[in-house]
Design goal:
Blueprint lengths: L3 H13 L18 E5 L2 E4 L4 E4 L15 H12 L9 H13 L5 E5 L2 H16 L3 E5 L12 E4 L2 E4 L6 H4 L2 E4 L4 H11 L3 E6 L15 H12 L2 E5 L12 H6 L5 E5 L9 E5 L1 H4 L18 H16 L2 H23 L4 E3 L4 E5 L35 H5 L3 H14 L2 E2 L8 E2 L6 H14 L1
Parallel strand pairs: 3-15, 5-8, 5-9, 9-10, 10-11
Antiparallel strand pairs: 1-2, 2-3, 4-12, 6-7, 11-12, 13-14, 14-16
Helix pairs in contact: 2-10, 3-10, 6-7, 11-14
Bound molecules: pyridoxal-5'-phosphate (PLP).
Length: 448
């Protein structure tokens, strides 16, 4: 594969864009390939190389790069007729009604422009609603580029994880390990009446893919309810993907007070949203006092794309298709691992998948039949239970450099575009086919 055009573009970009990219994860080594266009489940780069795409914009592109006709038509019509006004439009009401119809915890929704903006607003809302300051988050969880959650440390003390954030922000944030009920029980025992909210992804989706152990999300629900704190599910990545239109909260049967959305709900355009019970969401201005506002919020093109995206999924076999192909991928990768890398762990559910290059996870031959071939479910009876990743730290301990510097590079050279590091999830879209899956498994077999 030649990459001369991408190399030249990156050379130019480095002069005028910090690190040559507008989002850090895109700065792949030695330089990123610049994409010229998408084509179904594929992307084509500036040198004309074609890749089978499992990055899918890091989550939003449920249909791949050719959206269904109603989505395309809506985007074109709303883009050419405005595109935005600074006054309300019918389509934002339609999308809010759709979300309220399908997502168990949601009566009302405020739309914003990114997942980050959604979690920033949700944290402010929880603090305003409860009159408390502390937020509990999961180590290795991701809530976008926001001051209150860019922290490192543990229950005994947190520091900002980036320069530029005063440590006074981190003083109000308590990071705990995911899947550890005792750790968060201890935090509530000490700080119960100071905690505004527990903010967590129902499945950690930005640090490998870490499935909750049985009963963990239920425990979070009980603890928050008992102490008058809110439970906020950050479903920016799982929303309208895991569990289909009911989202991960429907799949797990645990109903949070507030949910943040992003990615898929904007149909490929910049979006975020905060949904929940009316009594809480109405605390936002202008119905309440918690300030929230945005020039582009509820942008008609985004609202139309999101509404048509979700409506199409409600009427077609979209989730069935993406979930079936991803399951086939996860099972196929499990088979390959059994022969070639028995220590590694296949993770993911619904249309999300990843292979975590876990260390020390090899089990004896006879025991392989009991591992979760379709993606780790944290079953205590599994022979890999002791080594499968349960926290963000477990994923960080994997062979992260091997993924980034060898595996990712070689898959790319074989025409398969995966997410650039060990942590980010990969996605199957409605445009992927059985043949794509077989081609991908062949490439995993050759590369692992
Ligand atoms: C992607 C993501 C965000 C941030 O969304 P942006 O639109 O990138 O700001 C927040 N939370 C989770 C769980 C995400 O996956």
């Amino acid at each position: 594969m030649r990459h001369d055009e991408s190399r030249a573009l990156y050379d130019r970009a480095l002069s005028v864009i910090p690190g040559g990219v507008n989002s850090s994860v895109r700065a792949t080594r030695p330089y990123p390939f610049f994409i010229e266009r998408g084509d179904g489940a594929h992307v084509v780069d500036a040198d004309g190389n074609r890749y089978l795409d499992y990055v899918m914009g890091y989550g939003p592109l449920l249909y791949g790069h050719d959206p269904p006709e109603p989505v395309r038509a809506a985007i074109q019509s709303y883009a050419s007729e405005g595109p935005m006004y600074g006054a309300p439009t019918e389509i934002e009401v339609e999308l809010a009604e759709f979300v309220a119809r399908h997502v168990p915890s949601v009566e009302m929704t405020r739309f914003v422009n990114s997942g980050t903006e959604a979690t920033v607003s949700a944290v402010r809302l929880a603090r305003g609603y409860t009159g408390r300051d502390k937020i509990v988050v999961m180590q290795g969880g991701y809530h976008g580029a926001q001051e209150s959650t860019l922290v490192e440390g543990g229950p005994d003390g947190a520091e900002p994880s980036s320069p530029g954030i005063p440590s006074s922000f981190a003083e109000h944030t308590i990071p705990v390990p995911f899947n550890d009920s005792e750790a968060i029980e201890a935090v509530f025992a000490e700080h119960g009446d100071e905690i505004a909210a527990v903010l967590t992804e129902p499945i950690l989706g930005n640090t490998g893919i870490v499935h909750p152990v049985d009963g963990y999300l239920e425990r979070l629900r009980e603890l928050t309810a008992d102490h008058g704190a809110l439970l906020i599910f950050d479903e920016v990545i799982t929303g309208f993907r895991v569990g289909g239109l009911q989202c991960a909260q429907g799949k797990f049967g645990v109903t949070p007070d507030v949910t943040t959305f992003g990615k898929i709900v904007g149909g490929g355009f910049p979006v975020g949203a905060i949904g929940g019970r009316a009594a809480i969401i109405e605390q936002f201005t202008p119905s309440g006092d918690v300030f929230q506002s945005g020039t582009f919020s509820g942008h008609p093109v985004t609202m139309a794309a999101g509404y048509e995206y979700l409506s199409y999924a409600a009427e077609n076999d979209v989730y069935e298709h993406v979930n079936r192909l991803a399951e086939r991928l996860r099972e196929g990768i499990s088979d390959i691992l059994e022969d070639q890398a028995p220590g590694y762990t296949v993770v993911g559910t619904d249309s999300m998948f990843k292979t975590v290059f876990t260390r020390g996870g090899a089990v004896g031959d006879a025991e392989h039949s009991d591992v979760c071939a379709a993606g780790c479910r944290q079953r205590e009876s599994c022979s890999k239970y002791d080594t499968c990743p349960k926290t963000g730290a477990d994923v960080a301990d994997a062979e992260t450099d091997r993924w980034e510097r060898i595996f990712w590079q070689e898959m790319k050279e074989r025409g398969i575009f995966l997410t650039a590091n060990q942590f980010e999830s990969q996605f199957v879209s409605y445009a992927h086919t059985e043949e794509d899956v077989e081609e991908t498994l062949e490439a995993y077999k050759e590369t692992l």
